[in-house]
Fold each of these.
Amino acid sequence: MSVLEKIDIFRQFTDFNDSELEIIMPYFVAKKFKKKTHLLDVGKVSDEVYYLIKGCIRLYCEKDGEELSTYFFTENMFAGSYDSFLSRRPSKVAIETLEECEVLVLTHEAQEKLYDIFPKMNEFIRKAIEQRFVLLHDLFISYLLNSPEERYLMLQKDRPELLQRIPQHQIASFLGITRVSLSRIRNRLAKK
Amino acid sequence: MSVLEKIDIFRQFTDFNDSELEIIMPYFVAKKFKKKTHLLDVGKVSDEVYYLIKGCIRLYCEKDGEELSTYFFTENMFAGSYDSFLSRRPSKVAIETLEECEVLVLTHEAQEKLYDIFPKMNEFIRKAIEQRFVLLHDLFISYLLNSPEERYLMLQKDRPELLQRIPQHQIASFLGITRVSLSRIRNRLAKK
């Protein structure tokens, strides 16, 4: 991946100039992960967040031996267990790749160093965490107010590519329903 | 309220010195609200957040004509419909005071000006929104993983004063149960 491509990514939130990018880029380490790579266990403190250049990363928690998918990150998103990364408490969610992934890794240590040497990083991370907050709030409110069918329709509208990329049983657990219920919803909508 | 008291509040997240506090304080306007003051309707864009010096503020959404309490803010917290305040979209939650409140109001316009004239504000707001993110994530995960009784026990452990300050029907709606179910939980726990 060329430096120019990385620059585009970091101009998403903040108007870093080229000399500023020279400072921050060494703190983001390019890595590739294979599909189904386990990046974090429930109960461990998260030390890394992943800027997704390519691929898909899933968060999930566990209840009664079942996996509940809580979020799917795709290209141009910061993926991670932010809750644990920020609070330094054991993570309530696990992280795994669903596809082969190309990422830029920012460790907690690197982030803290960046705040020290380059205060403008606060603006960048503020905007990243604000975006993440809004997505989490949308998800929380949709759990409170919407039926699984309504949430399926929202997913279809807002992130249609996910329905193609993610295994059906993980979409179902994200909606809080069984795979059979998901099939029923899809069939019902197909007849409309 | 003296300036010294305000200073304590703003040193919670960031080491502002006295001359920095002189810059930012005029952007935070002290106000008092009576109990049951309605601060925001669902569907309106939120233009204000409230740093709570004294009192209690509730967020709630509406479902089938019922109010569902989604959060209670008390002293030393930034209360508000952050989702709408940040995204500039119509709010999914309403805001009201549950007690007489003393607050410092930061408008969206004042916040944007502060970012321009005083970049260190990014660090302060980053930390405030990170704290808010962690609280929202805790709430979201507890909805997914815990029973109403478990959530009642968490509330009792983490924020015992809320159980005294908040009307029972609002605690019940926050836990996603009826007032009768809440009474049953309390009776069951009292017998243990």
Amino acid sequence: MKLLTVGTVAFDAIETPFGKTDKILGGAATYIGIAAAALDAEVHLVSVVGGDFPKDYLRMMNERGIRTEGIEVIEDGKTFFWSGRYHNDLNSRDTLVTELNVLENFEPKVPEAAADAEVLMLGNLHPAVQLSVLSQMKKRPQLVILDTMNFWMDLTWDLLMEVIAKTDVITINDEEARQLSGEYSLVKAAKKIHTLGPKYVIIKKGEHGALLFHDGKIFAIPAMPLEEVFDPTGAGDTFAGGFAAQLVRSGRPDFESMKTALLVGSAMASFTVEKFGTERLLETTPELLRERIAAFRELTAFEAEI
Amino acid sequence: MKLLTVGTVAFDAIETPFGKTDKILGGAATYIGIAAAALDAEVHLVSVVGGDFPKDYLRMMNERGIRTEGIEVIEDGKTFFWSGRYHNDLNSRDTLVTELNVLENFEPKVPEAAADAEVLMLGNLHPAVQLSVLSQMKKRPQLVILDTMNFWMDLTWDLLMEVIAKTDVITINDEEARQLSGEYSLVKAAKKIHTLGPKYVIIKKGEHGALLFHDGKIFAIPAMPLEEVFDPTGAGDTFAGGFAAQLVRSGRPDFESMKTALLVGSAMASFTVEKFGTERLLETTPELLRERIAAFRELTAFEAEI
């Protein structure tokens, strides 16, 4: 099986209580791609960058096995740029700059080699872009995973509903689940979201972990408690990438496999936050990942009988 | 083994988005006692009430096997009264009335039959009261569990440090752990709290579950996602009571037993929030508890190998 993802490839400039960066490599598709490649999944990106995007970044992706034919380079355009400053608790942030640049008129083009991907991860973007990618697939993928956010609920409700209706798995945070459903209880929110289309609802709760809802069943996974969260940028995308890639590897996108995929996604994300940007994720080895997953098992396992 | 707990026995008047109550039975020791008795643990309460406290409540406790010789009745005094209003999200509340009444000059008296309890649960009260109970024990209990809150950190820091130094297990919420330690990261906070005395640190995160820290190890348990949280009053105390009682039952207060005890405490607490006050907790049967614990296992179990 192979994974296709559409999302941003971007420059980020990040400030945290621990320091700040210049423009560094960022974007949802970047994190998803690197996470998936680290899991040895065949992964294709669809995105757009400007002439200012270093060829070295694309080369780095290719060396890791990430397929980038779907990344359009608009030579006389500029790459999407986001800058943000995290507060002391690292749970909230202010956006300082958003320059859409080439993203403003982004028309995604799915390469021939990726149009038959069995797993499609629609990264957080305008729902019209997500719908365009979906319409370019040769046949409906076995699994369509959607990431979105409150911004699209506020601005493009009807289009968003159209994407959601075509989605198998939706990943959103708790506040967004409440906004999307109008329900405070996450159990009720998930039930309502099921009726919009997705058979699987993943609610991300940051440092509190995530919940997976399916067919009346619930699975809860904590986040790995970390001594130091250095930079949360990309954690959600890394999670999504690890999740999608693990499903590609399993070849069996069902509830049981999704539990494992949540574990893998959480483990990958716990690396991302340890350094700025993609730095720590790029250092992650299969050995480190196995250790982190073992730590997750220890974190959650209990043996004793009542 | 037996459990002794000191804490409030009180009247509560509660307002939630779903309704309001008159003065009903409340108090930390009440919830702890009922939870422990539901688990068939021998449990003794130390507390104080006024002449206005219905004898029926004491009779109800005794019928459930709760030992109440340690509840002093001050006939010409009034019982501690708390009234609060929960906000729509049920995660925050305003205190409307706090009448300390007989609690103001509370001098706890540990009954002879309870002074050799192996497990001592110091419910959330003035640290001087907690120290007094500790000093009345025939010998140091095998396990001293402390519940406290930000209020005592603000007002009685030195005395609180004295209790904490004599404590094996401390249960506090995430904000309190941060205040107590001066560390934002909960991993760092727990490390610092270990140095104050407690070998075990339990950080309660409400709807996000709880974390147990011990000797470099961490165990995470989610809260049961509920369709309806009706009234959160007493959930923390029920959790503490279920936790302590399960350790009494296990007879082996070590890290592995504490994982199970956290599970039992969480399961008990998930009942308490389903109705006003103690109502739902009083309806809980061993059969219901077994079902809820099975639901917890399903919520957290994953089998698949990576």
